[in-house]
């Protein structure tokens, strides 16, 4: 595949374990020269996929300069992660050892890998498609149980199978369409064209449903964002401290204490959740506080859910669309149960009244915002996937509206190309550096 920014003859290496102090460090090597390099530093190539303890030398042929004693694993291609010959060295994790062995690998003809280069080679060599490769990146970055499960399903091919299944169905539709074009005088049954239209509409419907659930998968991947807003002294900072279980925000009776947005991340219902404490909303001549109000309104627009707080006996004049109303200081006054047709969660951060109910509500809200698809299909995880499915769906819509069979066939081919770009089967060269550049070194 041309234009992918790597030479097939290069042999690459990288540290696949973290740089923190540890007992073991794993150096991973891949490429056509792996066997010769392993012979040079180890003196032999062990049996495939069998861990053996061997001495690692700067030059094993003359046993010059012993570097370490390590576990060695040999992975001959094509049955390896990258599809190429490769090996791993499980070294003692001293920085001096890692540097010395890395230098020995360079002297033997290898070079340090670029970010994501191992997985890029796996993609180029057909070990995985592009969607599965993105799942690898998400799996490495997973911080929560929800992220882990979704990324693992993507690595196992859940999304790829969905998109490939659509492509296969499109291929069959296109075959019937080509038959109508190539054999117009063969008196093909009239239901052939009717079935084509029905199949196109069914595919469109499935794609539309997939896109409609798209935000749920993206939220699992990036996390759910709650913006806490309201007037000064409503208890926003106190709520943030309670939600995160620590004194993250300064709490003061003086209005306007919070000037900037404070973001704190935690785990709720197995999902990464970010709570943003914003400046109190009010008219002010203070330039810094006014900027804080502007930023607060920005976060309100960007958040997945807005917690709009107000203190007892000070009802909000304006309610943000879709906001969850939280009335604080229930110990000081009466808080209405319903306001402008919306339920109100009454709490007291001083006495603890209503806080268990608020916690349960937020947990349910996170679960709703990240719920699985009604159809049971895997969720969209990236904006790139959504754009690709939308392109395919638009082509199907155009195909269904075409009267000329030749034009309809062309739109069907364009829809197949849009799906092919998702999995990396066609036209993705310009995307690859951007996608694999997000990976860590060694993956």
List keywords for this structure.
443 residues; alpha/beta; Gyrase A, domain 2; Rossmann fold; 3 domains; 18% strand; flat
Q: Short description, anyone?
A:
The protein has 443 residues and is an alpha/beta fold. It has 14 helices and 13 strands. Mg(2+) binds at residues 237, 258.
Write the layout of secondary structure elements.
Layout: E1 12-15, E2 24-30, H1 34-42, E3 52-59, E4 64-75, E5 86-92, H2 95-107, E6 111-112, H3 117-124, H4 130-141, H5 145-155, H6 158-182, H7 191-212, H8 214-222, E7 224-229, H9 236-244, E8 262-268, E9 271-277, H10 287-302, E10 305-311, E11 324-328, E12 338-339, E13 342-346, H11 355-369, H12 383-401, H13 405-423, H14 429-436
Parallel strand pairs: 1-6, 7-9, 7-10, 10-11, 11-13
Antiparallel strand pairs: 1-2, 2-5, 3-4, 4-5, 8-9, 12-13
Helix pairs in contact: 4-5, 5-8, 6-7, 6-13, 7-12, 12-13
Describe the structure.
It is an enzyme of class 3 (hydrolase). The chain is built from 14 helices and 13 strands. It has 443 residues and is α/β, with parallel strands linked by helices. It has a 7-stranded mixed beta sheet with strand order 8-9-7-10-11-13-12, sandwiched between helices. It has a 6-stranded mixed beta sheet with strand order 3-4-5-2-1-6.
Q: Within the largest sheet, what's the order of strands?
A: 8-9-7-10-11-13-12
Shape: flat
**Could you name the CATH homologous superfamily of the largest domain?**
P-loop containing nucleotide triphosphate hydrolases
State the separation between the terminal residues, measured CA to CA: 20 Å
Number of distinct helices: 14
The CATH class of the largest domain, by name, is Alpha Beta
**What string, H for helix and E for strand, traces the elements in order?**
EEHEEEHEHHHHHHEHEEHEEEEHHHH
Radius of gyration: 29 Å
